[in-house]
Please model this.
Amino acid sequence: MDLLARLLRGKPETEAQRQARRDWRSATAPEQTAPLETLRWVAVDTESSGLDPYRDRLISLGACAGRGAALNTHDSFEGLLRQEQASPRANVLVHGIGHAAQAAGEPPEQALAAYLRYARADVIVGYHALFDRTLLARAVREHLGLTYRPVALDVAVLLPALEAVPGTVGWELDRWLERFGVHAYARHDALADAFATAQLFLVVLARAREARLDRLSDLLKVQKTALELQTLQRV
Model:
């Protein structure tokens, strides 16, 4: 039995799953030497049934794409995954996606296949990006039988490192939005938070230019070093 059949517990493969696999074969991840000015990146945010990306379920996702320092506000993606079991009421109070809306969402394989067509294998940008990438990878593996491991840039790590203002490590999204005067039209809405994160990533790119960091590999090195320093400070 192949991987997809095992993951889907013997359920028949849908056309969305077959098409997702065909599309995925042609997706090409960017080289780490890619210039930032030409890089297509996808800002992503997710809403989930809880705070554990290794156990909780993906409920909705929003994404918007940019190329270099240009963000196209009309280029976006939004998906709501149908839930077999609605999340607890306390969780609904966080993201506002009620039980009826969760039950009426798209079949997960369709929503995730559409997301992969949008995001391809491009770099994803997130605020606490590891959470979003882990949640997405689990959902894609479960519903499509595919391995999704895009390069991820974490604005929560890169902004403090490049802004170099003491005490900003660990700031939540709202504090950075306030600092740069970015207005989020909603909070704990996946697409709105993705747009807010994208606008903060434009600040990251501006600081990178000032520091003469002009390739994807440069930002990845900054991110790796910042994470290592944070780990040492916690010891």
About this structure: The longest helix spans residues 190-210. The mean pLDDT is 92.
